[in-house]
Amino acid sequence: MNTPKRKAGIVVATPARTVCDDYARYFESTGDLRFIALGTRRGIDGVSKKNTRLKPSIGLFTYIAAKLVDPFKSESFRFGLLPWFDRWVCKQLQPGDHIISSYGYTNECFKFVQKHGGKTFVDAGNSHIENYWEIISEEHKIWNCPTPPFAYHWYERSKAMLESTDYILSPSNYVTQSFLSKGFKQNQILPIVYPLNLELFNPKYNARPKDRPLTLINTASLSLRKGTPYLLEALRVISKQNPEVRILLTNNVQDDIKPILSKYSDLKIEWAPGLSHDKLAERLNSADIFILPSLEDGLGRTVCEAIACGLQIITTSNTGACDFIEPGVNGEIVPIRNTDAIVEAVYKCANRMHEPPGNLQKMKELLSYSNLNNILHNHFDNLFKE
């Protein structure tokens, strides 16, 4: 792979560890990383100390806040630290730098970079921030949730930062379409992948055990954003029609869903805590159909893990991982907020669950670190070649 020639160094800046770490590793390997800035006390593997700038006091304040207040206030406080992080990073920039960050993290840095001839890149782990806010705000109103989707001051910072954004790093078609619908141009969208280590996620059986009852699973957190109310209602309908059905959920329950979850005590749920990858793969292999009716997900790591294990998948068009679903083959894509569609999809998938999974290697290759590196090489070579 020929190393592209850049006009200047690339800065990666996020207060916490994110997928942007992978971008920093790539640019370190090509010699184009000027530095990565983190609000933590440790750097990342694959990036030298000389190219690492740390602000551990930000992480310390975030940790203290998480121990002292409720989750929403803790998150709001964490986002309130962003101007501090932003100013600290901005002091270290120089004319000609390019910068990669995410929503609302580095507003002043983006302005500086654009003013001095550099390019700005937002890593879009979720859809356009206005789309994100609108969908989840509506959901909170439906269920009388008293808190907003996330801190309003972060929402305002994120919107403002997009005004100084040149390019969007998009992990899915869902994210891409959300930016196009808000006025971004196609040439501003740079499709990328979020690499996942799926080495441990493989089908366990050549054929589904004949004595296993229909087993439905969701390994994501439970929340309004993840469409949990519609999942629970669909599970209730199916349980009444098929009392032998097994339901496997993860005991990661967000506050906004707890009042709703309490109304479904009739469901016979087999709960599990957060699991290591090997145990998570084993749990997935004990199930037939994975269901994630999310209202907003830039990708959906849990969906990809379930696909790799050969499960039939039911998810929504608002989940980026639906890019890997072929309806009628390895799953079904349903509209958001549609219990009836979920129930119907379960029975469609149940009719196929005895069929062997198709070729799963292609998805693993697409979500590999080497593929991300190739994609970044192509994008940045085109943007910065002399």
Net shape: globular
Share of β-strand residues: 5-15%
CATH architecture of the largest domain: 3-Layer(aba) Sandwich
Task: Count up the domains.
Answer: 2
**Class by helix and strand content?**
alpha/beta
String of helices and strands: EHEEHHHEHEHHEHEEHEHEHEHEEHHH
- The largest beta-sheet arranges its strands as 3-2-1-4-5-6-7
Low-confidence runs (pLDDT<50, min 5 residues)?
A: 1-7
The N- and C-terminal alpha carbons lie at a distance of 17 Å
Number of helices: 15
Mean pLDDT: 93
Question: What is the CATH third-level topology name of the largest domain?
Answer: Rossmann fold
Q: Identify the CATH class of the largest domain.
A: Alpha Beta
Number of separate strands: 13
Main sheet, how many strands, which sense, barrel?
A: 7 strands, parallel
Taking Cα atoms only, what radius of gyration do you get, to the nearest Å? 22 Å
How is this structure best summarized?
The chain has 386 residues and is an alpha/beta fold. It has 15 helices and 13 strands. It folds into 2 domains: 10-195 and 368-384, Rossmann fold (3-Layer(aba) Sandwich); 215-365, Rossmann fold.
Give a structural overview:
- With 386 residues, the chain is of the alpha/beta class.
- The chain folds into 2 domains: 10-195 and 368-384, Rossmann fold (3-Layer(aba) Sandwich), CATH 3.40.50; 215-365, 3-Layer(aba) Sandwich (Rossmann fold).
- It contains 15 helices and 13 strands.
- It has helices at 20-30, 56-68, 71-80, 82-90, 107-115, 129-142, 152-162, 173-180, 228-241, 258-261, 277-284, 301-308, 339-350, 361-366, 369-384; strands spanning 10-14, 33-38, 52-54, 98-101, 120-123, 167-170, 189-191, 215-218, 246-250, 269-272, 289-292, 312-316, 331-334.
- Strands 3-2-1-4-5-6-7 form a 7-stranded parallel beta sheet, with helices on both faces. A 6-stranded parallel beta sheet has the order 10-9-8-11-12-13, with helices on both faces.
- Strand 6 (167-170), helix 8 (173-180) and strand 7 (189-191) form a beta-alpha-beta unit.
- Helix 2 (56-68) runs antiparallel to helix 3.
- Mean pLDDT is 93; it is low at 1-7.
